[in-house]
Amino acid sequence: MKDVVSSRLGDGGPVNDGSGPPSPLLIPGGESRDERGTVRFVNGFDLARVRRLYCVRNSEEAPFRGWIAHKIEQKWFFPITGLTAVHLVRVENFEHPAPDLKVELFVLDAEKPATLYVPGGYAIGVETRSPGAEVMVFSDCLLGERPNDVWRWAERDIFGAERGCEFTRTACATARAD
Question: The pTM is what?
Answer without folding.
Answer: 0.79
